[in-house]
Amino acid sequence: MKGSTEVAARFAQNLVRARRRAGLSQEELGYRAGLHRTEVSLLERGARTPRADTVVKLAGSVSAPVDDLLAGLRWTPGRVEVIVGGFELVERSGAP
């Protein structure tokens, strides 16, 4: 699913930015969030999309609001929108 890949990539960018602002390594972030460093790496490469509880743990671990990690992502019923440089990439589900 193309939209899922774009969502994961946008989340990855946001996570890397937040972690660097907090001055943490992937290993330190993983420790604080209760995740293995390889999980942090997968998230930062956009290879995995996090569950809601993981987003909350990561945000708390970098002392940032959850909104910072979800910046540029918007969802409405039937579509996912990824905001990239002022443009929206929209994926519509099969539902009307």
Blueprint of the fold:
Elements lengths: L1 H21 L3 H8 L3 H8 L7 H10 L4 H4 L3 E4 L2 E6 L2 E6 L4
Plain-language structure description:
It is a single chain. This protein is an alpha+beta fold. Helix content is 53%, strand content 17%. The protein has five helices and three strands; from the N terminus they run αααααβββ. It has helices at 2-22, 26-33, 37-44, 52-61, 66-69, and strands at 73-76, 79-84, 87-92. A three-stranded antiparallel β-sheet has the order 1-2-3, with helices on one face. β1 (73-76) and β2 (79-84) form a beta hairpin. The protein is globular and about 35 Å long. The two termini are 18 Å apart.
User: Cα-atom Rg, whole angstroms?
Assistant: 14 Å
Briefly note the structural class of the backbone.
Answer: alpha+beta
**Low-confidence blocks of residues:** 86-96
What string, H for helix and E for strand, traces the elements in order?
HHHHHEEE
The side-by-side strand order for the widest beta sheet comes to 1-2-3
Number of strands: 3
Mean pLDDT: 86
Brief write-up:
This protein is of the alpha+beta class. It contains 5 helices and 3 strands, in the order αααααβββ. β2 and β3 form a beta hairpin.
Keywords:
96 residues; alpha+beta; 3-stranded antiparallel β-sheet; 5 helices
